[in-house]
Design goal:
By secondary structure, this protein is mainly α. The chain has one domain. Helices cover 73% and strands 0% of the residues. The chain has 13 helices and no strands. Helix 2 packs parallel to helix 10.
Length: 308
């Protein structure tokens, strides 16, 4: 796996969700930085929704338990028969540990997962939907394709692990991407397909720049639109160059070392793009992101080791 694949932005949708959004997809080229940056906002919103759903689940489980107790002693039926009939069954028997990962995975397959996927698509592809010339019908259909892709990416880790054929496993992610691209081509044609592929190829850089732009928005030196475009372009070019230079290197990549080297290459070209204070802020932001990345890599390595 070359450095370009590791540092690229190619999704996810998955996307979109690190542990919840398929952390294992990082090892297959989904892009760690997109998971850390592009999905952060959607996950923060998801946390509030999860807490609300868990509270509702506990209430429903309590209602079910009360109904069973009343039935056992021959008492009257519960006040709300509808609530009891529609309440989800408890996740595990009393005393049995609840598999939180499995529980969350099941939640992501239903309406909750669709809601998170829509939020992720709006965050990651909002600029593309604005840039593209689309009719209302095309916009709706294209948005649906992106949501379906994002939901699929959330299931990809489990599906990948279930594959036993080495050839199918090797082409799993590329085959899935080809299916999405075929749908986009049928809907929008070759020119807009190319626009989508170009945008998707820069999505990691776009998400990082968007977060950096937000961080310095209230400062005395906010990021101008032209600076944003140039920063995305520089980051993309240096990531691609680094990947091309590493072709043929089949050793296990040092993710953190590669990221630090990439940051140095990017920053060396930004003297004519960013003002001195902006560049200082970027360096500080890169350091904080590197710490988050290091923690995430360690967690995924630990999780992978436990699964082996």
């Amino acid at each position: 796996m070359d450095k370009s694949t590791i540092l690229s932005a190619g999704l996810g949708a998955g996307c979109l969700l690190f542990g919840a959004f398929g952390g294992w997809t990082y090892y297959q080229g989904a892009g760690l930085r997109t998971e850390l940056v592009g999905k952060q906002s959607a996950l923060e919103q998801a946390q509030a929704q999860i807490r609300a759903l868990e509270a509702k689940l506990k209430k429903s489980e309590a209602a079910v338990a009360a109904a069973k107790a009343e039935a056992a002693v021959g008492t009257a039926a519960p006040e709300s028969a509808t609530e009891v009939a529609t309440a989800p069954a408890p996740a595990a028997a009393e005393g049995e540990p609840v598999d939180s990962k499995k529980k969350f995975s099941e939640m992501m397959k239903g309406p909750f997962g669709e809601m998170i996927s829509k939020q992720t698509v709006n965050m990651m592809y909002g600029d593309l939907l604005k840039e593209m010339v689309l009719t209302p019908q095309e916009r709706e259909a294209f948005h649906k394709i992106l949501v379906e892709e994002t939901m699929a990416s959330q299931r990809s880790a489990d599906e990948y692990k279930a594959i036993t054929d080495p050839k199918l496993k090797a082409s799993f992610y590329s085959d899935r991407q080809k299916e999405t691209e075929a749908k986009v081509q049928t809907l929008l044609g070759d020119q807009r397909l190319a626009q989508y592929k170009t945008y998707k190829g820069q999505i990691g850089e776009r998400m990082m720049v968007k977060q950096f732009e937000s961080q310095i928005a209230m400062s005395q030196t906010p990021l101008a639109p032209d600076q944003k475009k140039q920063l995305i372009q520089v980051m993309t070019e240096e990531r691609e160059k680094m990947g091309a230079e590493s072709k043929g290197d089949n050793g296990k990549p040092d993710i953190m070392q590669n990221q630090r080297a990439l940051n140095q290459r990017i920053n060396a070209r930004l003297g004519t793009v960013l003002m001195p204070e902006q560049l200082k802020e970027l360096n500080r932001w890169q350091d904080s992101m590197a710490q988050l990345m290091e923690q995430a890599v360690k967690k995924m390595d630990d999780a992978k080791a436990e699964g082996e």
